[in-house]
Design brief:
- It holds the Pfam family VF530.
- One of its GO terms (molecular function) is DNA binding.
- By secondary structure, the chain is mainly α.
- The chain has a single domain (about 15-80), classed as SAP domain (Transcription Termination Factor Rho, Rna-binding Domain, Chain A, Domain 1), CATH 1.10.720.30.
- It is about 70% helix and about 0% strand.
- It contains 5 helices and no strands.
């Protein structure tokens, strides 16, 4: 299966990992500002966000795009926070 999408940077990355990484990096408030949906702005949690994003393709697309756009910054932030 990994042969079917060798150039897809999201291949093999779980939606839960994406949401957790974005929430950790940006915080829920900033995440809700960047993608204004209730699951990020009203009592946010990973569980409620996953439920919403799995049923709402346009929102999932925006979350995945934000993740791709932020991936380098997230990796650098993690490196510095571990030093």
């Amino acid at each position: 299966m990994s042969q079917t999408q060798p150039n897809n940077p999201l291949h093999g990355v779980k939606l839960q990992t994406i949401v957790e990484d974005l929430a950790e990096y940006y915080g829920w408030a900033e995440l809700g500002r960047r993608i204004p949906v209730n699951c990020f702005n009203s009592n946010p949690s990973v569980k409620s966000s996953l439920k919403f994003l799995r049923r709402t393709p346009w929102a999932r697309d925006r979350v995945e795009q934000l993740y791709l756009d932020s991936l380098q910054d997230i990796h650098e932030w993690r490196q510095h926070s571990q030093e």
